[in-house]
Amino acid sequence: MCLSKNNRATHLALLHLIDYYIFVVYLNETSMNIALIGYGKMGKEIEKIAHSRGHKTPVIIDINNPEDFTKENLRKCDVAIEFTIPSSAITNYLNCFEAGIPVVSGTTGWLEHKDEIFGKCKEYAGTFFYASNFSVGVNLFFELNKKLAELMAPHKDYNAEMKEVHHTQKLDAPSGTAITLAEGLIEKLPKKEKWVNHAGQSANELGIISERTGNVPGIHSIKYDSEVDFIEVTHSAKNRVGFAFGAVLAAEFCLGEKGILTMKDLLKL
Ligand SMILES: NC(=O)c1ccc[n+]([C@@H]2O[C@H](COP(=O)([O-])OP(=O)(O)OC[C@H]3O[C@@H](n4cnc5c(N)ncnc54)[C@H](O)[C@@H]3O)[C@@H](O)[C@H]2O)c1
Fold first, then answer.
1. Which residue's CA is the nearest one to ligand 1's atom 34?
2. Taking the CA of residue 256 as centre, how many other CA atoms within 13 Å lie in the half-sphere pointing to its CB?
3. What distance in angstroms lies between residue 92's CA and the mean position of ligand 1's atoms?
4. Mean pLDDT of 178-207
5. Ligand 1 atom closest to the CA of 247, numbered from 1
6. Sheet holding 219-225, edge to edge
7. If you average pLDDT over residues 64-69, what whole number do you get?
8. Residues 38-67: what's their mean pLDDT?
9. Full-model pTM
10. Catalytic residue among 44, 76, 120, 170
């Protein structure tokens, strides 16, 4: 595309306006003390974003310092952000409820305990913000997925399938994000009744193919295939910054809120 001088100036002014909008919408006004539970790839990325937004991380818990995971330490913080492993997440959430601090849950693969955690959050009058994916782009993609499924519902010639690709250290499959996408699709596409973690064997099964390779932060594709063409939409994370940024925004959102919160509340979707 070739822009004239005037057009270029308008184009630049527009870009500045967009930058300003993003800055104002995501502007941080309060400085918080954040307890980081889990100091792996995500914990370290979250620490950087939190500091860049003026927050402190006085409590950092990982597998090697369980002695620091005390109610007294948690109570020094305004909020906890938890990115660990599925088998430790539940106990970590309960500890935060007992300490009376809001918790942002990033760990995936624990959802079979969802009812128990929601019940405990209510019992302790706590705050629990959870998301299978904290990326703003992915949460917009969740909405696009539902809209596309709604459009495709009357067109019986197309078969839907999903694929997700992640790094080799990922413990759960399919990814939490793929499950959220599958649930959204099944809600809007009556032909599909359940998802399976392999190619679909019958018309009512939504196949999710999981691939583990290299250091991929996360790719999710939704495909509609017919005899004559196919439609594919993909979200591809370039790095972990988007997840970390969303988790810090979620922590900021928790202040003064009670109950179960999701990205729909934060992004007003
Ligand atoms: N919701 C999202 O947007 C999102 C994005 C990326 C990753 N994730 C999920 O977050 C989790 C962590 O991802 P990661 O890439 O940081 O993994 P990672 O393996 O790099 O880090 C996990 C960390 O948790 C620590 N840990 C294990 N047990 C612990 C315990 N009992 N107490 C404290 N720390 C403990 C490990 O020592 C490790 O440092 C995974 O479940 C992953 O699927 C979610």
1. 62
2. 4
3. 12
4. 97
5. 3
6. 194-196, 205-212, 159-166, 219-225, 230-236
7. 97
8. 97
9. 0.86
10. 170
Q: How many residues are present in the chain?
A: 269
| Residue 122 tokens, joined | 């209510």
CB-CB contact of 89 with 110 (8 Å): yes
Domain boundaries, the chain: 25-134+241-267, 136-236
Task: For domain 25-134+241-267, give its CATH number from 3.40.50.720, 3.30.300.20, 3.40.50.300, 2.60.40.10.
Answer: 3.40.50.720
| Residues whose CB is less than 8 angstroms from the CB of residue 3 and which lie 6 or more positions away in sequence, other chains included | 11
42 Cβ inside 6 Å of ligand 1: yes
Q: Which of 135, 128, 33, 36 is nearest to 83 (CA)?
A: 36
Torsions phi, psi for 23 (to 5 deg): -60, -45
Rounded mean pLDDT, 6-17: 50
Residue 180, ligand 1, Cβ within 6 A: no
What's the pLDDT score for residue 28? 73
Among protein residues, the one whose CA lies closest to atom 40 of ligand 1: 107
- Ligand 1 center–CA 41 separation, angstroms: 7
How far does the centroid of ligand 1 lie from the alpha carbon of residue 200, in Å?
30
Q: Is 96 in the pocket of ligand 1 (CB under 6 A)?
A: no
41 close to ligand 1 (CB < 6 Angstrom): yes
Determine which residue's CA is closest to atom 39 belonging to ligand 1: 40
* pLDDT for 91 beyond 70: yes
Instruction: Verify whether residue 166 is a known catalytic residue.
Output: yes
Residue 131 beta carbon below 6 angstroms from any ligand 1 atom: yes
The answer to whether 25-134+241-267 and 136-236 have equal CATH topology is no
Q: Which helix or strand (DSSP H or E) is residue 88 part of?
A: helix 86-99
What homologous superfamily is domain 136-236 in, according to CATH? Answer: Dihydrodipicolinate Reductase; domain 2 (3.30.360.10)
- % of the chain residues with pLDDT over 70: 90
